[in-house]
Amino acid sequence: MNHRIELTQASIPSTVQITAINEHGDNIPVDISGEHPLTLYLDKRELLTLMTLGAQPEALALGWLRNQRLIASVNDIAAIQVDWDTESVAVTSRQLRETGIPLWDNAAHQQKLEKKTTTSGCGQGTVFGDLMADLDQIQLSQAHPLSQEVLYTVMDRVRKHESIYKQAGAVHGCALCSNTGDNRGDILLFVEDVGRHNAVDAIAGLMWLQGLSGDDKIFYTTGRLTSEMVIKCAQMGIPFLVSRSGLTQMGHDIATKLGITMIGRCQGKHYLLYTGANRFITLNSSQFA
């Protein structure tokens, strides 16, 4: 059982309305996606500034720290406080509260913070430490195969899901879906943000806050299947990574190494199964139940 974290509830509207001129010369109201800087502090140390819609700022901060392996457990955190007046989110560790020593004040954290990589793509992400560190220790569950029928359910429900993208565009979305029980394919969590990096981190934060395991889940992203996306999915313990987009060579190589079942180009009834075929059951398979 996770201890209670002091959390602000500081979400802000994801869209704003402006006036544009259409092809007929008419002034029309248009909803556009918000974009706000949010500087992240861990125990009073500034780490980076994220550009975000601002819909899930607390979960975004927690998930970013989780996926960068700067915190090992949600129980390490005492408080997450967002202040839009200063455009900042302050994360306070239990260690700082109890001992006065910042969580980052050790050799391991200092080594990670000294090595920083800015990743490419929409809504650039920043990665601290070695991307490939500890990958050999990740063991993904084989207990819950994914059927073609459930994949189609996920694709259909994500397509029909109400979203900021349909309203205003200019965002990426991520969904966490069930792969067990009577609700296979159901969307459990759905987050959109300026970049896919933020959306996946917010899902990771919400999973920790809600105590959700990744073993029996499916992760869907509208973005490309890059090395960073694969690594974050694996760190969250999720064996299935699905996208309507394509993949990169490094994304494919790491997914193969980790044994992730990765599926891309999901549109209508079309998909491409790139890796992890041992966990996937097609409709014409004798294994299908």
Brief overview:
It contains eight helices and 17 strands.
Question: What does this 3D model show about the protein?
Answer:
The active site is at 122 (cysteine persulfide intermediate). Belongs to the FdhD family. This is Sulfur carrier protein FdhD. Keywords: Cytoplasm, Molybdenum cofactor biosynthesis. It holds the Pfam family FdhD-NarQ. By secondary structure, this protein is an alpha/beta fold. It has 2 domains: 6-131, Ubiquitin-like (UB roll), CATH 3.10.20; 146-281, Cytidine Deaminase, domain 2 (3-Layer(aba) Sandwich). It has 8 helices and 17 strands. The protein has a 6-stranded mixed β-sheet with strand order 12-11-13-14-15-16. Strands 1-6-7-4-5 form a 5-stranded mixed β-sheet. It has a two-stranded antiparallel sheet with strand order 2-3. The longest helix has 15 residues, at 196-210. Mean pLDDT is 88; it is low at 120-124.
